[in-house]
Amino acid sequence: DQQVKQNSPSLSVQEGRISILNCDYTNSMFDYFLWYKKYPAEGPTFLISISSIKDKNEDGRFTVFLNKSAKHLSLHIVPSQPGDSAVYFCAAGAYGGSQGNLIFGKGTKLSVKP
Amino acid sequence: EPEVTQTPSHQVTQMGQEVILRCVPISNHLYFYWYRQILGQKVEFLVSFYNNEISEKSEIFDDQFSVERPDGSNFTLKIRSTKLEDSAMYFCASSDGRRITQPQHFGDGTRLSIL
Could you tell me which of A1, A4, A3, A2 has the C-alpha nearest to residue A89? Predict the structure, then answer.
């Protein structure tokens, strides 16, 4: 049961262009979403989050968009840099929920080419 | 910046043997977690620990698993009798709150290989 789906295992983007990473969820109880970034041989690092009361949250080059009706969120990175090359995990849960209820996707490997 | 540290980075063990994975959480954090990621799969929650006891566990965390905070700094995951399917990356994490709105800090993981 994949409650959080990242359907693209990998994405390749040219430096300076926009990277768009997608995530779909099936559980309508989810109302809080996080993106984590993971470099090889390192643990996931929190990147950005959004609650369902918003449809957009921005932090520097990173913006997360939430489309509740479509149960879809996306992470935009503009402009993309080679240092952004990593695996990006989407995670979802209920706003008042505990960490044990957080569900991760399988991740999308982003490669940003110079 | 404070970080979560895990040892060893890679552990190779014979099937049926016991293994202990070690973690040092961030010192002022109160909540500790273990996750695993089987190759090519998603990160899966195993267990959370607060105030010297398990606060949540998943159905993966069966009787062969146990966690302990043996002293003021270490947090360990013990797998009693390892199976081939226990081969995975194991991540320790800590946070200063139990809610998902308080993001966790992850260690770099221990790769466990069962032969």
Answer: A4
Per the DSSP assignment, residues forming a β-bridge with A44 are none
Inter-chain touch A43–B91, beta carbons under 8 Å:
yes
Q: How far apart are CA B93 and CA B106, in angstroms?
A: 4
Which residues 47-86 of chain A have a CB within 8 Å of chain B? Answer: 49, 51
Please determine, for residue A1, whether its predicted confidence score (pLDDT) is greater than 70: no
Which contacts (CB < 8 Å, 24+ apart) does range B83-86 have? B83/B15, B83/B114, B84/B15, B84/B114, B85/B38, B85/B114, B86/B112, B86/B114
A93 and chain B: CB distance < 8 Å anywhere? yes
pLDDT at residue A95 greater than cutoff 90: no
Q: Is A16 in contact with A114 (CB distance < 8 Å)?
A: no
CB pairs under 8 A between A and B: 74
User: Which residues of chain B are under the pLDDT cut of 50?
Assistant: none
* Residue pair A35/A89 in contact by the 8 Å Cβ criterion: yes
Is residue B8 within 8 A of residue B108, CB to CB? The reply is no
pLDDT at A88 over 70: yes
Is A44's CB within 8 Å of B91's CB? yes
Are A98 and B108 inside 8 Å of each other by CB? no
CB contact under 8 A, B56 and A100: yes
Q: pLDDT tens digits, residue range A7-63?
A: 999 999 999 999 999 999 999 999 999 999 999 889 999 999 999 999 999 999 999
